[in-house]
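The passage that follows is intended for readers who have already worked through the single-chain material. We present the inputs for a multi-component assembly, then the predicted structure in tokenized form, and finally a short commentary. You are encouraged to pause after the input and sketch how you expect the pieces to fit together before reading on.
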Amino acid sequence: MGKTTLFNSLCGVHQHTGNYPGVTVDIKEGNRQINDHSLIVSDLPGTYSLSAFTPDEQVARDALLTSNPDAVVQIIDATNIERNLFLTTQMMEIGIPMIIALNMSDLADEQGITIDAECLEKNLKIPVVRIVARTGEGIDTLVENIIRVTGQKTRATHKEIEYPHSVTNYIGEIGNYLSSHASLLGKLSPHYAAIRLMEGDEHLEKMLHDQGLVIPFIDKSDPAERDGIAEDILLARYRTAEEITTCAVKCTMGQVLPADLIDQVLTHRFYGIPIFLACMWFAFQVTFSASNPFLVGIEYIFGYFTELMNEVEMDPFIQSFLSDGVIGGVGSVFVFVPSIFVMFLLLSILEDTGYLARAAFVMDRLMHSIGLHGRSFIPFLIGFGCNVPAIMATRTLQSKADRIITIITIPFMSCAARLPVYVLFAGVFFGAAAGNVIFFLYVLGIFVAIVTALIFRRLVFKDEPSPFIMELPPYRKPSGFAAATHMWHKGREYLKRAGIVIFGGVLLVWALATLPAGVEYGSVDSLAGIIGQALHPVFAPLEFNWQLVVGLIFGFIAKEVVVGSLGTLYGGEEMLESSLAADPTLSPIIALAFMVFVLLYLPCVAALGVIRQEMGNWKWTGIAIGWGIFMAYIFAYLVLHIGSLFIGV
Amino acid sequence: MSNTTYPHKYLYGWTVIVTLTTFIAGFLSILEGARIITRFFILPDIPGGCILILISFIFATAVMKGRSDRPGWISFSYVASLLLLVFAGCSVLIEGGNVLTTIMEGEEEANILTILSPGFIWAGIIAIPLYLGVSKLLYKCSCRGECCE
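Having made your guess, compare it with the prediction:
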């Protein structure tokens, strides 16, 4: 844990980090120039062993085994060395030069864990450096060690694992046999390849088999014996890890840590989920209310510019472009920047404290009962920010069925891009209850994800989800600087999107609202009006007017474009809220049904691209699209007709 | 001090007071939200009231655990008071944002005192001494095992 933080620190970049495992799912590369040394640093997904089960673990394993790195820095959680040493024992046998970075050494000190780094170094024959990746402590020493180790010309010799005699004999015999076929092993040493084969590495066995090499010593007819050998190897590794830990680590405090006591409540079987819901409710209330004054301020500024624009004499076409297209469309999206920033700030704080990882743990029971893997909750949480990295985060799931179900359900997690739609409509039609409405929409998204998972697990993938093991990160006091930096990076992405994709989308809508030449701007005779009217019958049961239909169509480019389109079609930004409120075809319940439709109907183009990439085929991508539209229609219809009984149309 | 006696009796007694205060604040918020009563200076807020009652249940669990399980009392009362204080802070932000918006929109009915109307703030103020006390105990209890001796 802390790999990406160290990577950022080493390369001076700002890759997303999270206070929970599974944030990195592919390889990221960066550079660092130190005097005459030019380092290329790769950030690999985290793994506890080289026996890869999930796609992200496979990425890490393949990189270690095939890319022939000059050195590997293994980040070990200093508060739990033994668990991480298993991977160390595996990597030592590859023969790659290694350095161990003991991260979170400050927390280990706080918890009364004394680590004898020299003892570790001596036993492992690997340089060990104490670091605190968050503060940068020990990084310089680590860099010095990296330069020293990468400069070594000879193959690294680390501690040898002591296997039982029978296993050593097998490894020796297979290793000797493989030595005569070394060219087939790529960058693997015969000794290490022999160990992998004895451990039952089917990937390696198949690779050799495909090249016509059959290992005569591996008796396939006696799987029990092979299992026994694999178990002996496993036990020898664990024993080594335990012996080294016993020698190097001393714990001077009690067994119960403050985190354990806090976890008793936050992960409590009855209180855990209500506490999580309460935290999310407050997060959305604060997002709406605390950002509202900024929103009013920005509206005022845009209103001023629109007035200014209308006073200046210019060509009506250019005036319409600037006032309806740029200010009305793009301005209406920019107005919601404060809400996005506040939401990212709050999510960053929750993440930094370590609470979100507990939330995933708490949700595991619920997730299992609905047929989803507990680990799926992490992509769900990431999905509240943006669906694209969330879909990529499903690579941490082992089973293909778990991945497919999770990918189909992630678009129901309401990403930040949908927030402007909620803030606009909830603010106009629900006033003081806007925060509650926004919270309802987020909960509805989770509910629809649950329904979807249940249906797919019962009808399509009938196997049980695999068990969930997750490392709970330490609790931390949230750092204002870190949270603000995180908020800025995420918010900047939003601004970039607003500047490029959303601007393009909104201009397209403006052009459609203006053409053909001579029609009244944004009228039913414009191209936008014709498209909206053509599709209007499809949405008639939902009582959406044609402007809303056009917003939905172009919202496919990016969800912010929904608001931008409406800003363009309804005129200048200063008019959007009042225009919506005054539109007789709209009402609170229609607004709610519209928000539900926007929540569920389709992910944006970028998310669809990633779904296609991760699914690997169009069949499941098509199912994900179709299912989203179907659920959106059904739920919007239900909300409209059931809700109208209570609120009135 | 035996493991079965009341822990730090003043703090324990304060836990009982905070439990009752939180429950009453939540109950009143719900009644105000449902417009059953309107005479108290407390924010009408049904979801917020439900959260206050949830927190009062966590405090009540702490009180019940305190009779025999001191680390349990500490952990439940610590988390409940921390949640209460964090939510009280959030309530100030929410009401502050609402009042500021009202002022910026030029409405004359803006009343700055409404910032203090959420039940969380009153319950949170009463929970401050408890939070300070149990947070010290939490560290002692977990790291040195002293709270159980």
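Commentary: Residues 9-141 of chain B form one domain. Chain B has one domain: 9-141. How closely did your sketch match?
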